């Protein structure tokens, strides 16, 4: 039984009610049915884990995606397009001339790097050489390191610098491969919002005999002799041998690990200095604003069927570090001015203390502040490992899909 995929999408009126704003949305915001606002927005990497999962399960037959039009990084109070190819590196105003050349050599090294071919490694041991040492090898400065680690490799902190370099190399490769698929950015977003994802899985589940119970209150997780046996709702028990759920269903089996602030902003204009595009992601690296965690901005719009014509939805998020979270995200909010309306939420983050070995209850982690699904997919793979005792093997799953569906799987 699965109580996990809790993506919440609201109309504009529902959004006002949820955040206890008085009155109704002004007429200038258009019709309520034109809005599908994600409370926890995330983009999909075009060549990333979630897209591969959707392709393997064939949920993509129920979804339509639109590419996000730009990816930007914050430096010195301004935003710049993230350079991820050799050509973009040479044209970028983020770096000086000599830095551009060094960064271009770095990108060529990353693109050619192959763990199975020592000739491509240039003396680097992927399991021992740190990423800090790689940056030093190419004489890259701190600001280049910032946007490489946080906007290309998508790390949330700088802890990766002193870890083996292979994970960072693979992350940068993923960004470049995802970008190469559509050209504008490495990110995709489903038309009508993330609520389409669980709907797609619900349809697929029904085809294979699964049962969905909608709008059913969960009264109790029924445990006998330390092991889950079912879920009680309105006096009835739906029996199960294993249960997947998010932390809200079993708070006594979780621990608080932090907080996330998210601010949903309604705009009547695209974000400045982006070339008036209809969607983008902006990452503010921690070092640029003297923090320990990055700040994320993602913008979607009427072009994705989530807002009224001419309207934009920008969501700012970060991990809370102080007692004044709204002050922490001010650099991001300044980029969005003027803001027509904003909705502020601060959510606790939880991680499971019960790994499910005995109870067969498998609890996910809370959604983090990132604006992409890669960390969520890592959590899904962790749950899979706990449930089955083996790692999720993409290649094996893709082979099985091909065996079952043949050419129709493409």
TrEMBL record:
Q: Which InterPro entries match?
A: FAD/NAD-bd_sf (IPR036188), GDP_dissociation_inhibitor (IPR018203), RabGDI (IPR000806)
Task: Enumerate the transmembrane spans.
Answer: none
Establish whether keyword Cytoplasm is in the entry. yes
Specify the protein's topology with respect to the membrane.
Peripheral membrane protein
What top-level branch of life does the organism fall under?
Eukaryota
Hey, what's the signal peptide range on this chain? Answer: 1-18
Which GO terms label this protein's molecular function in UniProt? GTPase activator activity; Rab GDP-dissociation inhibitor activity
Q: Which BP terms from GO are recorded?
A: protein transport; small GTPase-mediated signal transduction; vesicle-mediated transport
Task: Alphabetically list the UniProt keywords.
Answer: Acetylation, Cytoplasm, Golgi apparatus, GTPase activation, Membrane, Phosphoprotein, Signal
Compartments (UniProt record): Cytoplasm; Golgi apparatus, trans-Golgi network; Membrane
* Cellular component aspect of the GO annotation: Golgi apparatus; membrane
Kindly name one Pfam family recorded for this protein. GDI
Membership in a protein family = Belongs to the Rab GDI family.
Its job: Regulates the GDP/GTP exchange reaction of most RAB proteins by inhibiting the dissociation of GDP from them, and the subsequent binding of GTP. GDP-dissociation inhibitor preventing the GDP to GTP exchange of most Rab proteins. By keeping these small GTPases in their inactive GDP-bound form regulates intracellular membrane trafficking. Negatively regulates protein transport to the cilium and ciliogenesis through the inhibition of RAB8A.
Q: What is the annotated quaternary arrangement, including any partners? A: Interacts with RHOH. Interacts with the GDP-bound inactive forms of RAB3A, RAB3B, RAB3C, RAB5A, RAB5B, RAB5C, RAB8A, RAB8B, RAB10, RAB12, RAB35, and RAB43; binds RAB3D to a lesser extent. Interacts with DZIP1; this interaction negatively regulates the interaction of GDI2 with GDP-bound RAB8A.
Protein name as catalogued: Rab GDP dissociation inhibitor
Q: Which gene encodes it?
A: GDI2
